[in-house]
Structures are given as structure tokens and as C-alpha cells.
Amino acid sequence: MRTTRGYTRRRRVKRLLKQARGYRGGRSKLFRSAKETLRRAWWYSRRHRREKKREYRRLWITRINAAARMRGTTYGRFMGALKKADVELNRKVLANLALTDAEAFDRLVEVAREAT
């Protein structure tokens, strides 16, 4: 006897088509097109979640470098000196300090200068 999978298949198709809402044409109405489109969308979203982390790190480094150069040092020297001084602040926090709290960043630059 053959298996028709009525309820199970209908539930799977409905769930997938619901995720494809907003796509144009057959991509939101036809199961096969929607499935291919969604698979690609999931792949891109996973890839871009990884890329977003890289882009933020680049942004933080750029901000720290700009702030450090305004105070007479470079990013590489500044980070190396902070490591020697056992200052364990990550790039996100350093970039935020450079942007919002100039006095705290100045003190960090002084700490870095004393360490070298």
C-alpha cells in the first residue's frame, strides 16, 4: 500500500511557503521555487552573519587607529603597549571609549606610553 503523507506534507509545504512570503512571483507560491530560494537565502544569511563580525572588527580598528593617531601614536603601537601594560579591554570597548569618552581614552594612551 502506498503512503500519501497528506497531513505531513501539507504542513511542511505550508511552513515553507509561509517563510517565502514577500518574494516575487512563483518564488512565494510554488513549492519548488520557494524551496530553492529559501535555501539560498539561508545560506546567504549564515554567510553574512559571519561577515558582519569581520566588518565590525574592521570598523573598531579604524576608529581606534584614528583616535590613537590624533594623540601621536599608531594603532599597532597603541595595542602593543596596552598588552604590555596588562590592559585587557577589547576593541569594541576601546572604539566606544574613543568615540564617546575622550578623557578615558587619553588616560589609556598615557598608560600605554608609560608601559613602553
Topology of this protein?
Blueprint: H1 6-19, H2 31-70, H3 75-84, H4 91-100, H5 102-115
Helix pairs in contact: 1-2, 2-4, 3-5
Essential attributes:
116 residues, mainly alpha, c-terminal domain of poly(a) binding protein, 5 helices
Describe this structure in words.
The chain is built from five helices and no strands. The model has no long low-confidence stretch (mean pLDDT 95). It has helices spanning 6-19, 31-70, 75-84, 91-100, 102-115. The chain is mostly helical and 116 residues long. It has one domain: Ribosomal protein L20, C-terminal domain (c-terminal domain of poly(a) binding protein, Orthogonal Bundle).
The major sheet is characterized as:
none
Structural class category? mainly alpha
Order of H and E elements: HHHHH
CATH superfamily: Ribosomal protein L20, C-terminal domain
Summary of the model, kept short:
By secondary structure, this protein is mainly α. The chain is built from five helices and no strands.
